[in-house]
Amino acid sequence: MSLEEDTRWLEWVTKQFESIAGDDKEIDLDEFKTALKVKESFFAERFFALFDSDGSSSISLDELLEALELLIHGSETDKLHFLFQVYDVDGSGSIDPDELRTVLKSCLSESAISLPEEKLDDLTLALFESADKDNSGSITFEELKAELENFPEVMENLTISAANWLKPPNLEQKKCKTPRYLTRAYWHNNSRKLLFLCLYAVLNVLLFIIAMLKNVHGGPWFMVARGCGQCLNLNCTFVMVLMLRRCLTWLRATWVVKVLPLDQNILLHQIVGYAILIFSIVHTGAHVMNFARMSQTDGMYQLWEYLLTIRPGIGWVNGTASITGVILQVLICLMVVCSSTFVRRSGHFEVFYWSHLSYIWVWALLIVHCANFWKWFVVPGVVFLIEKVVGIAVSRMGGLYIVEVNLLPSKVTHLVIKRPPFFHFKPGDYVYINIPVIAKYEWHPFTISSAPEQQDMLWLHIRSMGQWTNRLYEYFRQPECQTISNKRLTASLRNKHHESRTQLPAKLNENHRYCNIKCYVDGPFGTPTRQIFTSEHAVLIGAGIGITPFASILQSIMCRYHMRKQNCPNFNYSRCEAIKDNEMKLRKVDFIWINRDQKSFEWFVSLLTKLEMEQADEEPEGRFLEMHMYMTSALGKNDMKAIGLQMALDLLAKKEKRDSITGLRTRTQPGRPDWAKVFQKVSEEKKGKVRVFYCGSPALAKAIKAQCEHFGFNFYKENF
User: Fold this and answer.
1) Which value, to the nearest 10 degrees, does the dihedral of the CA atoms of residues 7, 10, 16, 19 take?
2) Which of the two residues, 588 and 487, has the higher pLDDT score?
3) Please, are residues 397 and 420 in contact by the beta-carbon 8 Å criterion?
4) 3-class DSSP string for 569-622
5) Which of 343, 302, 308, 333 is nearest to 323 (CA)?
6) Tens digit of pLDDT for each residue in 26-39?
7) Is the omega angle on the peptide bond into residue 524 within 30 degrees of 0, that is, cis?
8) How far is CA 645 from CA 124, 140, 290, 673, in A?
9) Which residue has the higher pLDDT, 261 or 623?
10) Where is the EF-hand domain (predicted)?
């Protein structure tokens, strides 16, 4: 930290001390634990003992500031000495194996990592044997210092600040930067979307002005109402065009994808939806003001009669324009509110789903409300109807059954569906699924997690985050599933294509079972990830369950990779280059998976292990597929409570050739990725044009997209 930051930090510590210490101006152990917010009391007790220089069982402000001053401005040796004292529990001047084991156990608890006792012993021995240079049975300060020098990253973080564990929130000053939306990189990387939005805005302005000029005779309020009405004709039709999924999927395979922002259709749909809300409110308000003027000037009808009756005869269908307008305004407001992020992300997807189905009533009322709307609606309406008919036909063709279910950690349900022979899809595509035993009329979108090369089965991984997904998970946990005998199971598997068989799942073990449950699938539908195989260097980033589209993609990539090697057994680069360009342009794939906790990695560990084993250790161009795992609940190497653990994990991973957390060869990194460093490394590899594909939380997407714009990478977010 800089001198200015140190000063601000000390001021913050002083302020925090005064708020914690209370009237006695002293901090006891319990208050110290509360202030540090640590999961394990071991570190709080060790820090407290070292800060309490006079042994009074309490820390004064002077003692706290004296210790922190040493840690911030002290030499590297001072900082390492403090770390050594934390590990030297009995104060003997050396660290024995039992002390080291106690420290590492507390480190595991702080990082929310659960390992068997045997693995903890292995970690302890790995670090102890490496540090105990003279085999004396204990680690001295000089030996610990020498061991830390083998980990430059740890030393660097210690040198920056040994007191990061007490770093105040929002310490970094917000630098005055040019707003992201005004940077050249943003406009360059979003040129198609921005150009499209500009054309869309210009078209609305032109329609508004033309409609106003045609209705000058009606007065200013009438002109505004007509202008907004014409814009609503366009937007209420265009909002439907943006959700023609089959047409968009087909267009993604054509040159149109290079011109139009097809990958932004969900965002554009939302923008048009908000535009409809604004135009409708202004349209309604302008009509109300006009009716108020008319009721005062001619006196034939009251304002409420203009709004809620057919007496004035306004409208082309029996004077119903006002009544249908009021109903439309209510429906539009309801749809926008129920489609908000808060509703969709808070486990109430059904509210969004059922309220959005009112679009049928909106279109019907618009045809009655406006004499010219049908002219805008007829062509896209027919296409929409054809898409719906095709979707119903496709979903009902063939007998689709869920034949296998796996209940995975973090309430993830893995469905295995018998794949019909006519079902063809691309890696990363998604489908809508309906399971009548869960909800007869509800359809929900999920990404296909199996590869197209897997001919017989279709995989879906569904995380329980809402009412429908929770009902699905609980359905396969019901205890009555155990009542089916093994003979009944055999008969069910032999006749799984017949609906006459039972629909209750047959339980083989606690989390894995075979079953024969009827389902309907509509799709597949394309996503931005279809462009992965036309990329040269693809960076795939999945957060949590966001790995599902990349599970399919990674399997497909490796299938094509092996086909390339079979076509070129000696794998001579010059000979294989033509094959690579014709079948797959990919030269390098970086896969980044970010999870909150350890159990979340269990979803796809077997798949990732297989991919690691199938890939050769060395390639002429370097590793074709490189994996990067991050566990956000684990404390990073810049945290004093995790330094020893991360050193031990590194040493044991080198010894056993696999990671202790996931079992993969790839070492799981603690904390969150430093995207600037990650993308800097990608940029330096110079494997060709970089495209970044992301699936996960919207908040993380913003941070990643900002870095992509900085480095000039194309960014694609999974939306459906």
Assistant:
1) -90
2) 588
3) yes
4) CCCCHHHHHHHHHHHCCCCEEEEEEEECCCHHHHHCHHHHHHHHHHCCCCCCCC
5) 308
6) 777 777 777 666 55
7) yes
8) 9, 18, 73, 19
9) 261
10) 39-74, 75-110, 119-154
Q: State pLDDT tens for residues 217-249.
A: 888 899 999 999 999 999 999 999 998 988 888
Type and span of the H or E element at 401 = strand 401-408
Residue 504, pLDDT > 60, answer no
Q: Could you say which DSSP state residue 670 is in?
A: E
Q: What is the pLDDT of residue 407?
A: 86
Q: Which amino acid is at 258?
A: K
Model-level pTM?
0.74
In this predicted structure, what is the pLDDT of residue 163?
Answer: 47
Residues 476 and 505: beta-carbon distance below 8 Å = yes
The span from the CA of 85 to the CA of 419, in Å, is 61
How far from 153 is each of 222, 281, 586, CA to CA, in Å? 69, 58, 32
Long-range (24+ apart) CB contacts under 8 A made by 185-190 are: 185/709, 185/710, 185/712, 186/709, 188/709, 188/712, 189/708, 189/709, 189/712, 189/713, 189/714, 189/715
Q: Of the spans 197-211, 310-324, 410-424, which averages the highest pLDDT? A: 197-211
CA 549-551-556 angle, to 5 degrees, is 100
Counts of helices then strands in the chain (DSSP H, E)? 28, 16
Give the other-Cβ count within 10 Å of 343's Cβ: 16
- Give SS3 for 559: helix
Structural domain boundaries in the chain: 3-165, 186-390, 399-478+511-525, 528-565+583-633+671-718
The token duo for 27 is: 């901090």
Greatest extent of the chain over all pairs of C-alpha atoms, in Å: 106
Separation between Cα atoms, residue 542 and residue 549, nearest integer Å: 9
Classify domain 528-565+583-633+671-718 at the CATH topology level.
Answer: Rossmann fold (3.40.50)
- What is the C-alpha separation between 331 and 643, in angstroms, rounded? 57
In percent, the amount of the chain with pLDDT more than 70 equals 81
Contact 638, 153 (CB under 8 A): no
| 3-state DSSP assignment of residue 461 | strand
Write down the pLDDT at residue 571. 47
Cα–Cα dist 546/693, whole Å: 11
**DSSP H or E run through 700:** helix 698-711
Domain 3-165 class in CATH: mainly alpha
pLDDT in tens, 265-316: 888 999 999 999 999 999 999 999 988 888 888 778 788 887 888 887 888 8
CATH of domain 399-478+511-525: 2.40.30.10
